[in-house]
């Protein structure tokens, strides 16, 4: 494209891509378009990087809907609506313009295409199950906002690091939305708002590195101050879990309970009390407790965060659980190569990776429950498992992040 070419294109949207954008084609080139729906014709503005004819794909943002899908709705977040300039639309609700049930259809399509491409043939993507009967708003128990150099507080604009003003936070829990509305100014950095099970919102400010290091030089003689962490509590059934307020816990208030029940259901016929069982990337011990509920008595939970491991020791203290602080790949190089019972594998968004999958295969566990927050990473790892002879007899998917492209999948693997 030359500099004199128009910056907008009229495009027919043919599909959805992983990551919450939509697919169109222009003169043989793929164009990834935000804020559209398959079946629509839209007018889209190319982004600044989409001026190079040598690139295999371009990116664009919808500025007008020429032929709307029957599934289009007014955006659940008014400030993210297509009527607003793309530079002023907040990120985090990239499917908020799509009717809620159709969002789940699109998410299933993303999973299906990922499985077909990376996991091999013969795997059917499950339906993406709703976890409540609401309109998909008011569920975020954790929200991160940002403060820029002018003291502006708000979310980043979609696909940028530019802070924008918004008047509402419809995906947040009501108490968090109220707390966000009351925020003002401060030094550049980020603000985390957290509502644990007690319902009281914590507001945690983190100044950016430049300002923090300047303060350390002037007041701390070059030594960083000790970072303090408030401990809060979350509840899953009759179990109470302590976790750092700014530590990892599922964002939807029902997510931990839903995933606990899903893992329990997949593994209930696969736990031998006498075997050694493993909770990998175990956090503060949620799935180690699930294994204990299934009757396991010899459980090891492995987590690279030392603080999370300390919490896991406390959370699991009445149980026969060993909490280990280690990288999972390093830990697996030290365990016996046979005799493992069941494994719960809950890796970060990038997935477990080939080295971890091959190490698990060498342990010969009875079964593995894989908890995934990224469909492509899951599909890649399932492809590796299947190449080693594993089967995937069951999968479940859950819409734990309504109005965003994210969702969770739990897969059972057996030999």
Write the layout of secondary structure elements.
Layout lengths: L7 E5 L2 E2 L5 E5 L2 E6 L6 E6 L10 E11 L32 H20 L8 E3 L11 E6 L5 E2 L19 H8 L7 E6 L7 E6 L1 H11 L11 E6 L2 E6 L10 H13 L8 E5 L5 H8 L4 E6 L2 H10 L5 E5 L2 H5 L7 E6 L8 H10 L3 E6 L2 H13 L3 E9 L8 E7 L1
Parallel strand pairs: 4-6, 7-19, 14-15, 14-17, 15-16, 17-18
Antiparallel strand pairs: 1-5, 2-3, 3-4, 5-6, 8-9, 8-10, 10-11, 12-13, 18-20, 19-20
Helix pairs in contact: 1-9, 4-5
Strand order, largest beta sheet: 7-19-20-18-17-14-15-16
Which residues sit in consecutive blocks of at least 5 with pLDDT less than 50? 1-5, 210-219
The residue-averaged pLDDT reads 93
SSE order, one letter for each helix or strand: EEEEEEHEEEHEEHEEHEHEHEHEHEHEE
Largest sheet: 8 strands, mixed
- Secondary structure tally, helices: 9
- How much of the residues is beta strand, in percent? 25-35%
| Number of E-type strands | 20
Any idea what the shape is? globular
Gyration radius, in Å = 23 Å
Percentage of residues assigned to helices? 10-25%
Distance between the termini: 52 Å
Broad structural category: alpha/beta
Describe the protein in words.
The protein starts with 7 loop residues before the first strand and ends with a strand. It is an alpha/beta fold. The strands form four sheets. It has an eight-stranded mixed beta sheet, with helices on both faces. Strands 1-5-6-4-3-2 form a six-stranded mixed beta sheet. The protein is built from nine helices and 20 strands. The N terminus is likely disordered.
């Amino acid at each position: 494209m030359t500099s004199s070419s128009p910056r907008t294109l009229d495009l027919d949207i043919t599909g959805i891509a992983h990551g919450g954008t939509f697919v169109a084609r222009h003169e043989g080139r793929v164009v990834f378009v935000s804020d559209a729906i398959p079946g629509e014709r839209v007018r889209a503005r190319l982004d600044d990087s989409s001026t190079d004819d040598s690139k295999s794909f371009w990116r664009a943002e919808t500025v007008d809907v020429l032929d709307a899908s029957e599934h289009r709705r007014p955006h659940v977040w008014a400030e993210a609506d297509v009527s607003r300039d793309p530079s002023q639309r907040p990120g985090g609700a990239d499917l908020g313009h799509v009717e809620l049930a159709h969002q789940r259809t699109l998410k299933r399509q993303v999973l299906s295409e990922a499985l077909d491409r990376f996991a091999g043939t013969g795997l059917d993507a499950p339906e993406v199950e709703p976890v409540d009967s609401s309109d998909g708003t008011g569920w975020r128990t954790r929200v991160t906002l940002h403060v820029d150099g002018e003291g502006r507080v708000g979310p980043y604009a979609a696909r940028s690091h530019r802070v924008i003003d918004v008047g509402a936070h419809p995906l947040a829990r009501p108490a968090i939305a109220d707390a966000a509305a009351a925020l003002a100014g401060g030094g550049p950095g980020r603000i985390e708002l957290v509502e644990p099970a007690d319902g009281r919102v914590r507001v945690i400010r983190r100044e950016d590195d430049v300002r923090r290091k300047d303060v350390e030089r002037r007041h701390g003689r070059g030594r960083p101050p000790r970072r303090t962490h408030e401990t809060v509590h979350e509840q899953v059934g009759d179990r109470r879990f302590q976790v750092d307020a700014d530590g990892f816990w599922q964002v939807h208030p029902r997510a931990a309970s839903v995933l606990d029940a899903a893992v329990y259901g997949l593994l209930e016929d696969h736990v031998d009390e006498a075997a050694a069982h493993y909770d990998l990337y175990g956090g503060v011990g949620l799935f180690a407790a699930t294994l204990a509920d299934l009757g396991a008595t010899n459980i090891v939970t492995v987590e690279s965060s030392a603080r999370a491991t300390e919490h896991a020791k406390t959370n699991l203290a009445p149980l026969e659980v060993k909490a280990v602080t280690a990288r999972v790949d390093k830990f697996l190089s030290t365990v016996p190569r046979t005799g493992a019972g069941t494994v719960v594998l809950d890796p970060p968004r990038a997935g477990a990776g080939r080295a971890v999958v091959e190490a698990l295969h060498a342990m010969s566990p009875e079964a593995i429950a894989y908890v995934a927050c990224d469909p492509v990473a899951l599909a890649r790892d399932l492809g590796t498992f299947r190449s080693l002879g594993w089967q995937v007899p069951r999968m479940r998917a859950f819409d734990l992040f309504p109005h965003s492209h994210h969702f969770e999948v739990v897969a059972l693997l057996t030999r």
